[in-house]
Amino acid sequence: MEEQMTEKQSVLTDRDIRKSLNRLYIGAEMSNSYERLQALVFCVSMIPVLKKLYPEKEEFIEALKRHLVFYNTDTIPGGLILGITIGMEEEKSKGKEVAPEAITGLKTGLMGPIAAIGDTIIWAAYMPILIALFLPFAKEGNPIGGLLPLIIYPVTTYILMRYLTLTGYRLGRESIVRILKDGAMQSVIFFANVVGLMMMGALTASYVDISTPLKITASGSKFVFQEFLDSILPGLIPLSVVFAIYFYMSKKGPNFNRIMGVIVIVSVLGAILGIL
């Protein structure tokens, strides 16, 4: 009996956890369904671990069912949830008092906060900064501008997700919940929001190019609208357009086809009328 317990306590290795991580990283957006979103890929990701933890067929099937419930969060920081879940499943397999509902409840409870962190830091800050760094190369026709972001992004996010998964596994449930509630995490999210907004402003000023050729001649003198607007605030028209699109999306949602259609129509009419 003691032999079995010792053996069971050392079943999982870092290699097993990396197998689960690799499956989730690669397939996170490939199996989404309207009913359960990322549940299927999360379940598939847990299979290498569950097979080792639950050699009995009935226990293995029950574990699979646990991870087929609704699941959806940001993939990269979601490594924390994966790591904690693996840790809880391991404790349960050892005979500890870990209820199946506790595992499901933990995943459900962490999905929202983790998604907020990922959307703020990965999508709103890191990705715009990375793209902005290489846009000048792409604008000049240098292939580095298109190739390097496609290499740097997956490498860096994979390293981060691997670290978070192993950290989540080692720290356990209580430590992660405490970290998420810590005021320092809110400061990180706020800082990432500010950086993301700064980058969006810089991108707007650099790459959204809208001007008006409209001029009025009166009493032998010309009044150039663009010069007047630039004297008030350089880039006022591009900034106004970006804010208008943002306001529309905040009220009506991200209807990109409609937004693109309106941009095309306004651009064509503006060019015909000599306004834009």
Structural key phrases:
single chain; 276 residues; mainly alpha; 2 domains; two-stranded antiparallel ribbon; elongated; disordered N terminus
Write the layout of secondary structure elements.
Layout: H1 2-9, H2 14-27, H3 39-53, H4 57-66, H5 79-93, H6 100-139, H7 144-171, H8 173-181, H9 183-207, E1 215-218, E2 221-224, H10 225-232, H11 236-252, H12 256-273
Antiparallel strand pairs: 1-2
Describe the structure.
This protein has a two-stranded antiparallel sheet. With 276 residues, it is mainly alpha-helical. It contains twelve helices and two strands. Residues 1-8 have low confidence and may be disordered. It folds into two domains: 2-199, no CATH class; 211-273, no CATH class. The protein is elongated. It has helices at residues 2-9, 14-27, 39-53, 57-66, 79-93, 100-139, 144-171, 173-181, 183-207, 225-232, 236-252, 256-273; strands spanning 215-218, 221-224.
